[in-house]
Amino acid sequence: xxxxxxxxxxxxxxxxxxxxxxxxxxxxxxxxxxxxxxxxxxxxxxxxxxxxxxxxxxxxxxxxxxxxxxxxxxxxxxxxxxxxxxxxxxxxxxxxxxxxxxxxxxxxxxxxxxxxxxxxxxxxxxxxxxxxxxxxxxxxxxxxxxxxxxxxxxxxxxxxxxxxxxxxxxxxxxxxxxxxxxxxxxxxxxxxxxxxxxxxxxxxxxxxxxxxxxxxxxxxxxxxxxxxxxxxxxxxxxxxxxxxxxxxxxxxxxxxxxxxxxxxxxxxxxxxxxxxxxxxxxxxxxxxxxxxxxxxxxxxxxxxxxxxxxxxxxxxxxxxxxxxxxxxxxxxxxxxxxxxxxxxxxxxxxxxxxxxxxxxxxxxxxxxxxxxxxxxxxxxxxxxxxxxxxxxxxxxxxxxxxxx
Length: 404
Prior knowledge:
The chain is α/β, with parallel strands linked by helices.
């Protein structure tokens, strides 16, 4: 995203041109920003040479997955659908990790049939089921076991996954018990210790605590793990108040950990790859002026972009055309859905706006379109991939006739 003569551009294409051609609301992705994020992520951890598996749950557009695959990236999947999609996108099956607390019989059977790298199990019952299916198929399956390290990620509570009260992973006691029980299994290879403590983490310190717990658990387990899956969760800069994650510190901590452990590190980034690579284009339908608030009613709604309503997250909003006239009055940017939570942003001032002006909601590439719905029987938006000066529709705008 950049401004040229006060007009918003995505790479080399005017946002106004995109909105005029494809309508609003529309998701617009910068292909070169995605590629740049992948290169930078790999560069930060070059010294430890990790296996990078993109978290498909953050963005499951197959065209984006195909572009990611070209950069030698694997996939972290959490459902049958995501696994089939990753394979259809051409991602190497030996770079696919299947995570999730509630894999059913059909999903486990598919993962075994496709011979993927790892099934990361999260309960004794799940491991029993994997072993049962493997026995019938006369196979020995590589699994990971997810540890819940009871670490506070210090991010949004609703996306915390590593505390003892969260549904994910196993307590240290149960983890050690399961390793002991299954380490001599004829049908299971315990290849991986897996953790994931949350999302949008902006401090390296929770990861430092996490690695100390992992080190202790490995020692107690007396087991050699070929892989340590550290999950993802590294945050991005959504606004000026967001701290920038210190990758150098995290890399140093991991290098120190690896001195005593000969193992391959796996990362499962999602947000840090696609989060800041997209804008949601929207149009002002109405401006409703109250005593202390200007309600800016947009054509985008919580069905198009759920994060602010679901998590209380904050995303910057910018105008297609900048002007210098600032209105010092609270502006609430809201959608047309019949819910009070259909609200994107509330700020004390904004530039002067008129009805029919176009705006962009920033940093919507992760957990944007994947969380969209047909609530209020609204159609889902289109998705457009921008590569320098070229445009490609990667998801057509839904039509009401196909819903009703």
